Amino acid sequence: MALRFGADVSTAATDYGTVLLDQRTGQYWELNPTATLVIETLMAGGDEEAATTALMREYDVPQSQARNDVNTLVQDLRASGLAT
Description:
Blueprint: E1 9-14, E2 17-22, E3 27-31, H1 33-43, H2 48-59, H3 63-79
Antiparallel strand pairs: 1-2, 2-3
């Protein structure tokens, strides 16, 4: 499923990944390069399986670890209200 950030969430690329700002609360989230790859894949219309494949290809991690990382990130972003 594609990922979308809420209208009150700003993103900025950094040398170390991506920073998210929740303008409703003023809270910042810093995403490492691995998480950045996941959100870029999902925001481009890819599903969680595509994000898992991207992690496996880029970082040479086992499928189970990549899938778990993708699922955890997506759940955290949705639970925080940053993403739908």
